[in-house]
Structure to design on (184 residues):
């Protein structure tokens, strides 16, 4: 799946304008929060936030900046999941999930060394991913997806437990984000 397809799916799922009273992000359009839109120079009413600006933000902030294209070359479904997780939780969160899973799956560092969980894709993370995939192909990518989704699901439940207003979103998070492999 291409980054353009991933962005189109996120925008289709997130829909147009929304201002849910329980959403700390405030008004959103195309899944872009008011804060993020302002950070990227949009000064208008979110009801008229242009789709093309949302696409540019998704590409720059949630795909290019976290270097998901480097993951996509190795494991396209994994890159899609990290993109989707990043859109919903912030790119470093999904990358930390990946790093935690890779550390836990390295068989006590027999396959590759543990890495620092820093939420950034760099040479160490890519080396670990390469080593894991080389050892665990063809099923390895699917196992990483399951691990990331398990961590993501646990985080959603914790968010709802810690802030009851988030219960308004829990069903949708689980229905639309877990098991989707970043594909909707």
């Amino acid at each position: 799946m291409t980054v353009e397809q991933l962005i189109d799916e996120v925008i289709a799922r997130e829909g147009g304008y929304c201002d849910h009273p329980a959403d700390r992000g405030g008004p959103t359009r195309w899944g872009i929060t008011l804060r993020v839109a302002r950070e990227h120079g949009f000064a208008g009413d979110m009801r008229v936030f242009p789709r093309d600006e949302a696409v540019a933000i998704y590409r720059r902030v949630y795909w290019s900046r976290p270097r998901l294209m480097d993951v996509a070359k190795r494991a396209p479904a994994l890159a899609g999941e990290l993109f989707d997780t990043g859109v919903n939780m912030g790119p470093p969160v999904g990358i930390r999930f990946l790093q935690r899973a890779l550390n836990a799956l390295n068989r006590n560092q027999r396959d590759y060394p543990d890495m620092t969980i820093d939420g950034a894709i760099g040479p160490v993370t890519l080396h670990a991913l390469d080593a894991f995939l080389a050892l665990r192909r063809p099923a390895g990518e699917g196992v990483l997806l399951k691990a990331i989704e398990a961590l993501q699901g646990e985080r959603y439940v914790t968010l709802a437990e810690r802030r009851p207003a988030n219960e308004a979103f829990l069903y949708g998070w689980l229905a639309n984000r877990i098991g989707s492999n970043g594909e909707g």
About this structure: DSSP finds nine helices and three strands in the chain. The first helix runs from residue 3 to 14. The first strand starts at residue 17 and ends at 18. The CA atoms of residues 13 and 129 lie 29 Å apart.
